[in-house]
Design goal:
Blueprint lengths: L1 E11 L3 E9 L4 E6 L5 E6 L1 H8 L5 E11 L8 E8 L2 H12 L4 E5 L5 H8 L7 E9 L8 E10 L9 E8 L15 E12 L2 E7 L9 E3 L3 H15 L3 E4 L2 H15 L15 E5 L2 E5 L4 E4 H7 L10 H9 L11 H5 L3 H24 L4 H10 L11 H15 L1 E2 L6 H13 L13 E3 L4 E6 L2 H8 L11 H6 L2 E3 L5 E3 L7 H22 L2 H25 L9 H26 L2 E6 L2 E5 L5 H17 L7 E14 L2 E10 L2 E9 L10 H17 L2 H16 L5 H4 L1 E4 L12 H12 L10 E6 L10 E2 L1 H7 L5 H19 L4 H5 L7 H16 L3 H6 L5 E4 L5 E2 L14 E5 L2 E5 L3
Parallel strand pairs: 3-9, 5-18, 10-14, 12-13, 14-17
Antiparallel strand pairs: 1-2, 1-8, 2-3, 4-6, 4-7, 5-6, 8-9, 10-11, 11-12, 15-16, 19-25, 20-24, 20-25, 21-22, 23-24, 25-26, 26-27, 28-29, 29-30, 31-32, 31-33, 33-34
This protein binds a DNA duplex (11 and 13 nucleotides) through α2, α3, β10, α5 and α6.
DNA sequence: TCACATCGGGG
DNA sequence: GTGTACGATGTGA
């Protein structure tokens, strides 16, 4: 029989038995039992004393002598170790603790590896692998799918995945007090919505409702919560999904529903076995859940961690709208009880609301192929699919453990708390040096193309080129004298790859070569195939990139600072050499470089020519660098604006099969931030566009001036000035004064019947006035109704100018250009200067001006045209001198 | 700028 | 369970 390995665990009878959950080629769920595998670990120390200590141990089955290779430090000879074979998985812990206190024990290895993983590693099996088993059918009530006893098992190659069944669910419950979260110990679940793929009993969705009402065909009603929960469990068993998904289920719905099972004295046995209940436990801040034989996929957690897609907010509504073009049904949290206790219409809307949530959660996973990459990560790392959603280090360790097994290398234990503290302290002393970031030639570069080149997979290729690996690191002085090696810029020595290729370089060689092939295949393919290839190459890239960081991670089993530092030092040397080569050979200036990229300024105005030069540089530099280091031509910027290290924007042109593809690219310059109003975002984008696409600093400046005038004239729609912030806790528990909280307090007084609640998001604008800023936050509606003026000063100097100024400063908005003489100043200085000069002349402190409601108009002496601020030329367009109209009356002349 | 605190998602 | 362990963003010094 053949099946794809979905999940694994073990049970204990007389002896431990491994259980493998999988799906056959015909997509049937099965469970296979493997009985002949027992726990063990390794000890390095005085054999006689170890034997003496353990001779009467109940836990230990036997002790065997073996020869093993250490993971850290190159050696030719394996070392003597003792393999301690134990009765049960727990015996390993007990024996380990007993041994670890003894002086005659030098080291303990692999005594902290989960039993299921011990099995998978020893049999060379990865999560989501296809396996071929010789087996007999057995009969057991402990699992709900057909069960077999394995006689023989081996991994097979198969490029298809079995078809998985998905169920997404969502629960609704109403708290006693809307300022608090619902309490799973007290507040019942009132709705459970589900969505299925494929259909369940010809239904795409189903909603369980704890209220006897007349409802549609996709709704089942219950008088009691207990009955509803029972039904939920039954449906899961009947539909029998492989994947259980939902939005933030791991941290909310699952723990909540499990507590409700407990309160109703029901066993939560909706996994694929009857002997292990579904459980969730608090680990640190978040919950961790397990459903035997099924996989929990929480799209919220996946999306939040994904470095490629970023959302403004991570609530289901925003994310679904962004990904699927469809959001939630609009029911506010605080209105839920009104719907639930309302008329039939209201309840029906509430039911659709719940139904929609389950639907959206499922569609996100399916339509966006959310788990594809993780399936590939499982196959690659060896982790079970469920465990690939967590951190990177466990992926690296599991993958290396598989390699170590093949090479007879022992994996060190995880660091103890003391060891972690030591590492942290050590790190504080001699800091881990990072990558090189060249100081950029700041400003706007628009005379010729900026050619961008970069090193693909820099760190993985450095590791390969210089054979950097814990097992190739030379620690022994004697070996050092007798062997050929490479020395890193920090002085660490690695055996020459021809003599011995380290584990990490070797797995990276495989991964990078495979990735190249897959990328080629991806180009030729389409549809679902292409998606899978893409998932594969993404998984390979993710894996390849995680080795460098791993060796410098304080909780790593293979924490080797010499390695982390060698990698970055080679990186710095590489970038230095690259810059030198480009500048000496090609006579172009490298105006910026960061870690693995170089930005080359040229006088070339033709894109194709720039590309040609880029390729020449690429070829030359690559030929003159060792090993696998390859500088590739990536794109050119037609215009390039760099503010500081890591902050730039440019008009990029990337060569594609169908010609040049252009776009405005930004790094480190945020145009979108939650605490900025729309106006700022819009202005930023326009300014950047004007500067980059038109190279027109002047019109960008004018545009900003124009916006400023509009703000002062109250011509900007309030919607664009609205800042949105959420109420996160009860109003009284805020210590400081925050605008949206002050507004919320006002609203409580204004409409006591419908006060803002925890979890609400409030949009506000800042209105003009003398009081503290946060006291002047107001609702848009209210401002319109009362015809209040906005605080234009605030919007100009607190919202608009800070980000705009950072950009305009870099393009050297100078007095020379703007005022006709003097040194370089930035736009804010100009504004301030104008204000200060005004103040000075009219002899009023700026504070006083504020009290009086700000300076007013600037009026032309000749034509009486008014300006909202001092024209930068100091003169009116008609040439007349500017006077200040102050507090309604024209005041003194302004000094030019 | 760095250390410390908070908040998020869900309902 | 041969355990595990948030991470980004905002505030304060």
């Amino acid at each position: 029989m053949r099946f794809q390995l979905l999940d694994a665990d073990y049970i204990q009878n007389q002896k431990p038995i491994i259980r493998l959950f999988g799906k056959t080629e015909r997509n049937e769920p099965i469970c296979c039992f493997f009985e002949d595998f027992i726990p063990y670990f390794y000890v390095e120390g005085e054999e006689e004393k170890v034997r003496e200590l353990l001779k009467d141990s109940e836990e230990v089955v036997s002790i065997e002598k073996e020869k093993k290779i250490p993971a850290i430090g190159y050696t030719k000879e394996p070392r003597n170790v003792l393999k301690i074979i134990t009765k049960k998985p727990e015996s390993v812990v007990k024996t380990r603790e007993l041994l670890s206190k003894k002086k005659f024990v030098k080291n303990i290895y692999e005594a902290d590896i989960l039993f299921k993983y011990r099995f998978l590693i020893d049999y060379g099996l990865h999560g989501m692998d296809w396996v071929d088993v010789e087996c007999n059918k057995i009969f057991t009530k402990t699992v709900k799918c057909p069960a077999f006893k394995i006689k023989k098992i081996k991994r097979i190659e198969k490029d298809r995945n079995s078809q998985l069944k998905y169920l997404s669910f969502d629960i609704e419950c109403i708290p006693k007090d809307f300022t608090k979260s619902p309490d799973p110990k007290r507040d019942q679940i009132i709705l459970i919505s589900m969505s299925f793929e494929p259909k369940y009993k010809n239904k795409k969705t189903l909603v369980l409702c704890k209220k006897m009402i007349k409802a549609g065909k996709n709704v089942l009603c219950f008088a009691e919560e207990k009955e509803m929960l029972k039904k939920f469990s039954e449906i899961i068993d009947e539909f029998d999904p492989d994947i259980i998904t939902g939005y933030n289920i791991e941290d909310f719905d699952l723990p909540y529903i499990l507590e409700r099972f407990k309160q109703n004295k029901l066993a939560a046995t909706f996994g694929r076995c009857t002997d292990k209940p579904v459980f969730s436990r608090k680990v640190g801040i978040s919950y961790q859940c397990n459903i035997s034989g099924r996989i929990i996929v929480d799209s919220y957690q996946i999306l939040k961690k994904d470095p490629w897609i970023k959302f403004m907010h991570y609530d289901l509504n925003t994310v679904a709208k962004e990904l699927l073009g469809e959001g939630k049904i609009d029911i506010k949290y605080r209105d839920m009880d009104k719907y639930w206790n309302g008329d039939e219409e209201k309840i029906k809307k509430f039911i659709s609301y719940a139904e929609k949530d389950a639907e959206l959660a499922l569609r996100i996973v399916l339509e966006k192929g959310l788990i594809n990459k993780f399936v590939e990560l499982a196959k690659l790392s060896g982790l079970l699919l469920q465990d690939t959603f967590g951190g990177q280090s466990i992926r690296v360790e599991t993958m290396l453990m598989h390699e170590f097994k093949k090479r007879n290398i022992l994996m060190p234990s995880k660091p103890s708390n003391d060891e972690v503290d030591r590492r942290i302290k050590e790190r504080e002393k001699e800091e881990l040096k990072g990558a090189t970031v060249l100081e950029p030639v700041k400003g706007l570069h628009c005379k010729g193309c900026i050619i961008v080149l970069d090193f693909a997979s820099l760190y993985p290729n450095i590791i390969r080129t210089f054979n950097i690996s814990p097992d190739s690191l030379i620690l022994d002085k004697k070996i050092e004298k007798s062997i050929k090696y490479i020395t890193s810029p920090t002085g660490a020595k690695f055996v020459d790859a021809k003599i011995y290729e380290g584990v990490i370089p070797s797995v990276l060689r495989n991964m990078l070569e495979t990735r190249k092939k897959i990328k080629k295949m991806m180009k030729k393919s389409s549809g679902e195939k292409k998606k899978i290839f893409n998932a594969m190459q993404l998984a390979l890239k993710t894996m390849a990139n995680s080795f460098y960081g791993y060796t410098g991670f304080v909780l790593a089993r293979l924490y080797v600072l010499d390695i982390a530092n060698s990698i970055t030092s080679f990186g710095r040397e590489n970038l230095r050499k690259t810059k030198k080569m480009i500048e000496e050979k090609f006579q172009y200036k490298v105006i910026y470089a960061d870690t693995d990229s170089a930005f080359v300024e040229t006088d070339i105005t033709n894109l194709d020519k720039a590309k040609k030069v880029g390729e020449e540089i690429s070829a030359y530099v690559s030929n003159n660098l060792p090993g696998y280091l390859e500088l590739e031509f990536e794109k050119t910027f037609r215009t390039f604006l760099i503010l500081t290290k890591k902050r730039y924007a440019g008009w990029s042109f990337e060569p594609t099969d169908s010609g040049w593809k252009d776009k405005i690219e930004m790094k480190g310059i945020e145009t979108i931030r939650r605490d900025w109003c729309k106006l700022v975002t819009e202005t930023m984008n326009t300014v950047l566009e004007l500067i980059l696409k038109k190279g027109d600093v002047k019109s960008a400046t004018n545009y900003v001036k124009d916006i400023i005038e509009k703000i002062k004239k109250n011509e900007i729609p309030l919607e664009k000035l609205t800042i949105v912030k959420g109420i996160t806790k009860s109003l009284t528990s805020y210590k400081g004064t925050l605008p949206h909280i002050e507004l919320a307090k006002k609203l409580v007084k204004r409409h006591p019947e419908n006060p803002p609640k925890v979890g609400d998001r409030l949009g506000y604008v800042i209105i003009a006035g003398n009081s503290m800023l946060s006291k002047r936050a107001e609702e848009v509606e209210y401002v319109k109704e009362k015809k209040l003026a906005i605080d234009s000063n605030y919007y100009i100097s607190n919202q608009l100018l800070p980000p705009i100024e950072r950009i305009l400063r870099a393009v050297g908005i100078s007095k020379t250009e703007l005022l006709g003489g003097g040194h370089q100043v930035n736009i804010k200085d100009i504004m301030n200067k104008t204000r200060r000069e005004v103040n000075h002349n009219i002899n009023i402190e700026s504070n006083d001006i504020k009290k009086l409601g700000g300076w007013e108009d600037f009026i032309c002496e000749k034509c009486k045209k008014t300006y909202n601020r001092m024209p930068l030329s100091g003169l009116c367009t008609c040439g007349g001198k500017i006077l200040i109209s102050y507090h309604g009356s024209v005041s003194r002349k302004c000094k030019q």
